[in-house]
């Protein structure tokens, strides 16, 4: 069972490497945004796999926090790309 | 687990080199997000979930937003800069000294390390007279010994937050300076330039 988890995490890490390469090469902004979003998702998956591999279920909260942070960061990045600032009244 | 550690560290090194070399600052901010996600999962792999929690919240969440708002004030492109020999040598020498310093450290998880054996007895024996008769050792540790620690951390974080807010707010009095009616135009021009970059 541990071998299965190990193989899964290695596969996720390979996907993370590919996403990182896309983010490095990415000619447009949206390639990079997509790569970063995918990277965050893969991090959440990696945390879950590590969690089950080490046999302690209390890291799943951390995976939840990561997906929230990924979402917030993504919204901030996209708003910023669209408007040039965060588009809020309090910044003016 | 060792294989995962090695792969994550290799990805961290690749990300760090990319951050140092890239000229598009918007992409650099994104790579710092990737870096903090990676380092947080590495810390999780090392069994430090509380540090990973902080890294995820501060590194991936807040600092990305702060850096983006900094970019809104400063612009998106970095000027040309060649490789300078003296700073490179200074960085390499500092890194070498730091690696040399780790040679004296105990092995990870070593039961004979001072952090595992040293403080417990003295804390138990001395906490009552130190804390003027506080009967509970746990309370003494959390409320008194670690209270200084937490006070220092709070002061440092407050100072850093104040400094960041002051830097980010710097444009405001300049743009609302009396006697310049078109004072808003450079800022908006800078913003549209940032959006197209």
TrEMBL record, chain B:
It holds the Pfam family MbhD. The chain crosses the membrane at residues 51-73, 85-103, 150-168. Residues 171-197 are annotated as: Disordered. GO terms for cellular component: plasma membrane. Residues 10-73 form the MrpA C-terminal/MbhD domain. Its main location: membrane. It is found in: Cell membrane. The keyword Cell wall biogenesis/degradation does not apply. It comes from Roseimaritima multifibrata. Coiled coil: none annotated. This is Na(+)/H(+) antiporter subunit A1. Residues 121-176 form the MrpA C-terminal/MbhE domain. Keywords: Cell membrane, Membrane, Transmembrane, Transmembrane helix, Transport. It is a multi-pass membrane protein.
């Amino acid at each position: 069972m541990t071998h299965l988890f190990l193989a899964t995490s290695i596969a996720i890490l390979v996907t993370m490497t590919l996403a990182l390469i896309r983010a490095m090469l990415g000619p447009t902004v949206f390639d990079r945004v997509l790569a970063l979003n995918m990277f965050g998702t893969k991090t959440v998956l990696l945390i879950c796999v590590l969690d089950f591999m080490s046999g302690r279920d209390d890291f799943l909260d951390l995976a939840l926090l990561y997906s929230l942070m990924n979402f917030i960061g993504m919204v901030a990045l996209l708003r910023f790309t669209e408007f040039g600032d965060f588009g809020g009244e309090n910044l003016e | 687990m060792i294989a995962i550690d090695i792969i994550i560290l290799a990805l961290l090194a690749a990300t760090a080199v990319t951050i140092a070399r890239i000229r598009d600052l918007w992409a650099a901010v994104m790579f710092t997000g990737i870096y903090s996600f990676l380092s947080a999962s590495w810390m999780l792999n090392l069994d430090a979930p509380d540090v990973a929690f902080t890294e995820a919240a501060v590194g991936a969440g807040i600092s990305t937003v702060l850096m983006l708002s900094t970019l809104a004030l400063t612009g998106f492109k970095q000027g040309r800069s060649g490789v300078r020999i003296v700073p490179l040598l200074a960085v390499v020498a500092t890194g070498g000294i730091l690696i040399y310093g780790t040679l004296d450290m105990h092995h990870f998880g070593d039961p004979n390390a001072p952090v595992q054996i040293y403080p417990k007895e003295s804390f138990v024996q001395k906490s009552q007279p130190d804390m003027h008769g506080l009967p509970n050792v746990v309370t003494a540790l959390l409320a008194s010994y670690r209270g200084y620690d937490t006070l220092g951390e709070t002061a440092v974080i407050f100072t850093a937050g104040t400094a960041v807010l002051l830097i980010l707010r710097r444009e405001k009095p300049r743009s609302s300076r009396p006697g310049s009616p078109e004072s808003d135009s450079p800022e908006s021009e800078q913003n549209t330039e940032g959006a197209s970059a």
